[in-house]
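Two folds, back to back.
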Amino acid sequence: MSEIQSIAILGATGHLGTQLLAALAKHPRHKFLDIRVLTRPSPWPTEVDPSLRVSVYPIQYGTYDTHEALKRALRDVDVVISTVGDDSGLSSKDVKSIAELPGFRAQDAVAKAAKAAGVKLFVPSEFGYPTHTLPDDKSFMGGKKHHLDLLKSIGLPWVVLYSGTFPTFEPAPMMLSSVNDRSSKGSPPYITTRFHTATYLLHILLDQDASELPWSYYRILGARREKLIHDAGGEKWILRT
């Protein structure tokens, strides 16, 4: 896999998706990246940094043309990043599994089209706590493992980044220091915000050898659920597992 030059984003209008666009605007390579946004067929409300090269592709899911429309949008894309959640209001009382919620059904459709279009890498919306170790059961949350199983079954390489719990209120974007300065109480001063997660995801994708990315897991470690700490070596914020 050569250097990543084009990125498609699913869920760009959500909390994490908007932070991903903000982080992209701060990356040194942002002016050279082809960024495509897959959105619903309605006015796109997100303001984007004018220095980003963004193309918007409205997609109507659940129609006979969905697959072909997604393939057209994803042609020549290197990596798809999914940041979907679900705003349907449905719960375990309405569907058997989280995989059946509309947002995650859309993610499945995008993954299948991405494979058909020749996309090289897929980043699923698996942020939070590890899902690949969930048991093969039929519980509501057990459905989180469904999408990774789908990517494996269709042979579409993936990268997963686990980040723990996001804060309830997102503070203003702030880059993480390369030094783990500790507070007077001895606890790490940084919170794993969505912006931090987006920033490190781009670091994984854009600043490392792309040939080592497929089929890998990354995790931001925390002394407490949403606190970042260094790895044992004291030099890195991310631990590849």
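---
second:
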Amino acid sequence: MAERLPVAVLGANGRMGSEAVTAVTAAPDMELVAALGRGDSLQSALDAGARAIVDLTVPDATEANVQFAVENGLHAVVGTTGWTAERLARLEALLAQRPGIGVLIAPNFALGSVLASAFAAKASRYFESVEIVELHHPQKVDAPSGTAVRTAQLIGAARAEAGVGPSPDATETQLDGARGAVVDGVHVHAVRLRGLVAHQEVLLGGPGEQLTIRHDSFDRASFMPGVLLGLRRVADHPGLTVGLDGYLDLGL
């Protein structure tokens, strides 16, 4: 029998973290060696023999957690938001000093969501207009969601490469926020509503037609196959990877 991967979950007491604990425990090729909550020492993950961590903590803690992991030779799979361009640059510089260590930072671990974002970016080359609506539970602390930002960035890059101009918009006056945030030229609208988990629509429009690409997560268990995939592949992708699509052969 192949050796099981020793994994430590950070943020184990949170909604996502508790799901990750369950998923790693059930995975036949992994061993949960540490489940750390707020205030627990990261050293205990090392002492337990972890070779990879899953960081599902909070934006204020995630950079230090990942830095600790990299400096101590642990691979990291990260679902925590708050990774600005400056933070990513610091992490890349650190990883350059630790060849062989892999870090995956994924705005979304739901495989369907990752695929939907990739499909939307591909389709956006062929439509005059594109906007994003993301819908989440009211406990979500950031807006727009990391998934929506990532989707907008992929769409913006795809449209720029194809030479597609900005979506037409004749708005001259508006209340603040009425047209949403603008990420890489794409309008992004955030909804926070009781009863939702995580949902996103990409609306694409052209003369006489509309294409809607929608993904729905009804339970946080939907994110766990992506977390496990990340853990299984992170060692094969040294350096920094942003987006689970970097581990998938999408052929787009």
